[in-house]
Each structure stands twice: as C-alpha cells, then as structure tokens.
Amino acid sequence: MSLAAVPASNALPDMSRxxxxxxxxxxxxxxxxxxxxxxxxxxxxxxxMILSMIDLTTLEGQDTPxxxxxxxxxxxxxxxxxxxxPHVAAVCVYPTMVGVAKKALGNRGINVASVATAFPxxxxxxxxxxxxxxxxxxxxxxxxxxxxxxxxxxxxEYGFVCDEIAAIKDACGDAHLKVILETxxxxxxxxxxxxxVLAMHAGADFIKTSTGKIQPAATxxxxxxxxxxxxxxxxxxxxxIGMKPAxxxxxxxxxxxxxxxxxxxxxxxxxxxxxxxFGASSLANDVLMQLQKQATGRYQSxxxxxxx
Amino acid sequence: xxxxxxxxxxxxxxxxxxxxxxxxxxxxxxxxxxxxxGKFVAPAEGGYFDTVNPATEETLSRVATATGEDIDLAxxxxxxxxxxxxxxxxxxxxxxxxxxxxxILQERAREFAAIESLDGGKPxxxxxxxxxxxxxxxxxYYAGWADKLEYAFPGRTPAPLGVAGQIIPWxxxxxxxxxxxAPALACGNTVVLKPAETTPLTALxxxxxxxxxxxxxxxxxxxxxxxxxGAAIVNHEDVDKIxxxxxxxxxxxxxxxxxxxxKHYTLELGGKxxxxxxxxxxxxxxxxxxxxxxxxxxxxxxxxxxxxxVQESVADDVIRKLRDRMETLIVGDPMDKNTDVGAINSxxxxxRIESYLKLGVEEGAQMYQSSCSxxxxxxxxxxxxxxxxxxxxxxxxxEIFGPVLAVQTFRTMEEGLSKANNTPYGLSGGIWTxxxxxxxxxxxxxxxxxxxxxxxxxxxxxxxxxxxxxSGVGREGGLHGLGAYLKLEA
Lengths: 308, 490
Fold this sequence. Notes:
The complex is a heterodimer.
Chain A (H helix, E strand, L loop, with lengths): L22 H11 L6 H13 L1 E4 L7 H12 L13 E4 L4 H8 L5 E5 L10 H13 L4 E5 L2 H5 L3 H15 L3 E5 L8 H14 L3 E3 L11 H18 L4 E3 L7 H15 L11 E3 L2 H14 L12
Parallel strand pairs in A: 1-2, 1-8, 2-3, 3-4, 4-5, 5-6, 6-7
Helix pairs in contact in A: 1-9, 2-10, 2-11, 3-4, 5-7, 7-8, 8-9, 9-10
Chain B lengths: L30 E2 L1 E3 L2 E3 L6 E6 L4 E7 L3 H21 L2 H17 L1 H12 L3 H22 L3 H4 L4 E4 L2 E5 L5 H14 L3 E5 L6 H12 L7 E3 L4 H8 L6 E5 L2 H11 L5 E5 L5 E4 L5 H13 L11 E5 L3 H13 L19 H16 L3 E4 L14 E4 L6 H4 L6 E7 L2 H9 L6 E5 L3 H10 L4 E4 L18 E2 L4 H6 L2 E4 L1
Parallel strand pairs in B: 1-5, 7-8, 7-10, 8-9, 10-11, 12-13, 12-17, 13-16, 15-16, 17-18
Antiparallel strand pairs in B: 2-3, 4-5, 6-20, 11-19, 14-15
Helix pairs in contact in B: 2-4, 3-4, 4-6, 10-11
C-alpha cells in the first residue's frame, strides 16, 4: 500500500478558530445515517469493502508468536471457501510482535501496524516513546499507531501534545502514523474536534478514535466529528488524512453505517483502505457471515468461520 | 465561487441500491365520493377529478368535487351530529373516540405513510418518521384534554363553538388534518373538512378510520374539491368557525368573507423565515439545520427557513459546507427509503418555483443547484441556493414554497435582526450560536410565532404554532389550539 506521507509540524494551529460542535445536532445527523437502507448489490459491495479496510488486531498481554502467526493466517485467508474475497488492510500488534507478523505475512500486500508510545496509556517519557517507535519501525512496521498524552491535552497543553506528535512522526520515517485520540477519555465532542485538528496539523497520516482499552471506544458521533475535522483540514491544506474508528465495531450493520457516514461526509475518494480503516478483531467474521447469507440466503453457524 | 478548491466527490463509486417501500399493503379505490353523515356519497353535480402521483404523473384515483348542495348536506350532517350525540356526550366518552382514532392511525401508519408519499410526492422517510407519527400524536394529545377543559382554562366555562369548517393545504395533508380535527373534536365540535385538491387521499382514508372508530355519523365529514368548494364552506351560514391553513392570498379572502358574520376563524398562512447563523455557532450542525429547514418536504413548508442570514466572517465556510451537503442529498423516487428530497407536489407549483428561479437569475443573484440527476417523468426541482441577493430582491421577499434558499450576510446582531424582521411575514425563525445570552436577545427581537435555537423544524402537539403579521391569525397546537375551538365564558 503506498500512501503519501504527511510532513511533521510542531507549529501549533490556531485552536480558537476550531469550530464548535453541537452534540444534539451531531446525534441527529448520525441517526439519519442509520436510517439509510443498504440492500442487495450495494450491501455486498459494502461488506467486501469493509473486509478490505480491517486492521485485524490483537493487543493482549498474553499474545504469543503463535497467536500472532494465527492472526496473520486469518488476514491472508479470510474464508477461502468463498472466492473473490479481499484480504484485510493490516495486522495490528504490539511492537514485540512486529517481526513475527512481518515474517508471517511476507510480501502479501498486508501491512503490519504496531502500536507504540507506551500504548494504551501513553504514560511514559518522550525518550521512551521515541525509542519504542524506532524499535517498531526497525522491526519492519509499516504503520505506527501512537496515543496522544491525554492528560496534557486535557490540561490545555496543546503545544506539548503537538510537539510530541511531530517528534513521533519524525521517528516514524517512512512508516505511516496513526494518532489515537482516545476519545473515550476526552469527554466532549468539542475536545474531539480540537484534538483532531491538533493531530492533523502535527503530522498525522491517520487519526484514530481509540485504543480499544477504554470504554466507550469508537462511536458514530465521535467518528463523525473527526470526519468533519478531516474535511475542513482537506479544504484548508489540500491534504487527505485517513480515518480509523477502532473498538466496539463488531457487527456488519454498524460497519455499513460507518461507510454511509464516510460517503456522505468525505465522499467516495476516502472509500479505500488507503484512507479508511476499521480497527477490529471480531468484525471480520460477522461480515463473512453476512456475505455468506447474501450469497446463499441462509445464515451459517458461527462454527463454519475460523476464530483466531 | 464555482472554482472551489479541494472539492469532495460524492457522485462516483459506491452508491445505494434502490430500496423501495412496498405498497402491497396499500389499497386505493378507483373513485372516492364525499364522506358525509358517516358514509361515502356521490357528489350532486360536481363530477370527479383526478388525483395524480407527482413523481410519476400517473393517476391514482378519481375524487368527487363538492359543490354548494353537497356542502349544505355536509354542514347539515355536522349540525345534526353536534346537536345530537356529540355535544351531549360525556367528555370522557368523547376522549375515548379520539384515543381510538389515534390508535388506529398508529396501527395503519405504514399504509398512511405510503399513500401520503404516493399522493403528495414527499419522501417515504418523512411521511413514515414525521407526518404520520406526529398526526397520531396530535390525536393522543387532544384526546387527553377532552374531559379536562375546565382545568385547561381555570375560572372559565368552556363550551364548543358548533360546526367547524376546515380547509387544509397539500404540504402535510394528514398532519394538517390532525391539527384541525383533533382539537375540534376534543372540544366537542363537529367538522366539515376539505383537503387540498392535489392531496385528498389520506383524508379520504381517514374517513375509514373515523368509521372504524365508530364515531357517530356526521361528527367528521370530508368533502373534496378545489377553491370553489372551500369558498362554499367559508360562506356557509351555518358554519361557526373557519380554520384555514394555506396561502396568505386566500387567507385575506377568507378574512373578508367572514368579517361581520360572527364566525370564529384561525388562519395559518405563509412565511419567509430567516435562519440566522452567528460566527460562534457550531457551523456543521448549523448547516445541517439549514438543510433541514429549507429542503425538508421539498421546501413545501410554511415555516421553512427560506432565508439564510450568515455572519460575514463565516459566510464562505458556511456556503461551502452547504454546497457539499446539498451534493449528498438524494433527490428522486419518494417511495425509496433513501430519498431525501422527493417530487414537487404539482405541475402548477413546479411552474411557480421555476418562475422564481428565473426571476432570481434576472435579479442578478448567483444560482447554485446540486448536480444530482432527476427523473424524466414527474415534477422535480433540484435543491437550489441563491447568493449575492439583497433585501430588495423578490426572491428574498416572497414565499417561493420550494427547495430554494436565499443567502445573505450580516455584520452585527442589530443588522441580522433588522434583516430578519424586514418581511411581511412572521411565522418562524432560527438562531444559531454557542452563546446563551445571544439566543435570548435574538429570540426576543425576532417577530415570529415560533423561534428555534440551534435546531429547526421541531414540532410537538403541546407547542402552539402560528404567525405574526401576514403569517396568520390565531394559534394551533397546545392549549392555545384548544382555546381556538371553544367559547370561554367567564
């Protein structure tokens, strides 16, 4: 996958110009997306698109090389009895597992994404975070999923957060940087919007909702606000920034509504794995079951789909 | 402005497959008579006219034209029912009938929604999620008041007026019927109602509901026809109250006709509402509100936010966002569940809207229309906005009643307020700002019957609705709406 990397910048954007967000209005708009009726061919197309956008994820303290290899197998062979399926976009692991994943995936066009920067809390020094990022990149990570320092952000230390993102961006080299805002800890949609602007200005290639370790993780309203921020940033700078909702998207219907929202907010140029990802572990099987149902008219038992 | 940089693409790639609402559950007769005295009867001499699906131009049914003789019969039936069962019935019993109507409407909601969209051209999403549920809600709300009128007006002795003649428009056929019939019945009146000639079907279907609910014959009479039929109701000697929703022109005629007759009247007329966006507003949500304010129901809404006043520092941003949002509106088959903007209600109305589009361009305004394609058959108008307009333009002054938005800018709060009020109308308004104090100041200054803050087009049966100036006389909805169907003696 080739993405044009965004340059890092520690110049702080004018946060007072960031437009406000009205939560009631956002919820109304989101409810409208959910009334869209996606049927027949557009449903099948959407389901396949969702598969191709998945970052298949395992981020557990109990992960082992064997577990990661198993996940990589799944990434390459989603459900071989159904021909014509895409593979997922990436496998997302902890830094120590990057080498294992890289080796298992070989040259299949599936990226390895590594979380870094003292994931999920981000509670470590700048030096450690940079070192961890370099290590993951050195092991061959194509993408780095960093977390912002929420404490600093909530204290209003935007300059600190901006510098940190820019520094990590530099440490990424050619690897792409996804900046996790951990929206479940930000409290308001206004802060989500501001954090999105900050991350994009500092050099994020993607902005991402959540670590998956905090509830709530990705929600439609939060993702909508981030898409709006991406749209305005694109208007101002001409640069496209990717979006990754992560955590909590476990069924096809919800994922299809995320695509509806993407289509009606950023348009069709973003509807590729280059610009949109789902961070999910159990979504793939539900999508496969739905595809099977579209093809045969019947639901199959979950036991017909490999759990990895 | 046409050379917008970094444009977004909405018209390529993944699209939504058709998702048509089924009409298997809908039956529409080939011909409908007049519903008088509890049964359908043939018109005396008026004959029948076609009612057409504006999305396909196909005839749905033939409907009777009521003339003077029919109106005599209808009013006599209403009078008889008023003197007989209805006004003497215990109020709690009366309430039961109205509750029954509300429940039947809910049970038959899918059918009513489909017919509303077939006959009127509005998207099925709107008739399903807004028109029909709200119509039922009005009956539920007023049913509850039927036996509590003394408590609604403490210290007074409320008494019904008698026979109400009600004339409703084509933009929200069943909902306007509910606004009219529910309070009238709750207060103990009987009614003769005329739906608009382009959208009579849900009112005629409602006659079935009235019959199924077991209302005494003559309590609700539905007569169809055009302006002459309406005039016959207005001028009928034995009608005690006229309730009208429609154009300001017809409202004037009605006011003249009832002057000196002692008839009570409420008139809900036109509008040219301003949505006022301040620079500190949540702009994306404001844009969403503007879109709902003007493109909801193809702009066939008397309280539509057809003027946009935007503070100059954010004007470019707002217009860009508005245009992007307009591109994502799906215009087409009203029966498709994904349609956002349906068909223009009639050929005549389309002609009126198109003449205003022409006028706007002639007046020197810049016209922008979304790039969507529209079906070849039927009556369609793309979502449209005009920029570069001023107060002296007719597209700013006159009600277009279509999906057409005129955008102006302002610098100070005073200028915004003055522009908003510089109109003969005063039905509604919208204020968009993050500052509570600004909301209070503006809502006190805007001379309109209903003002929404950081939202638009929100309706509830408990809330009164009506206009200042040429937007009307009297209020409907809530307690105010109840009072409009009562004599309130001390």
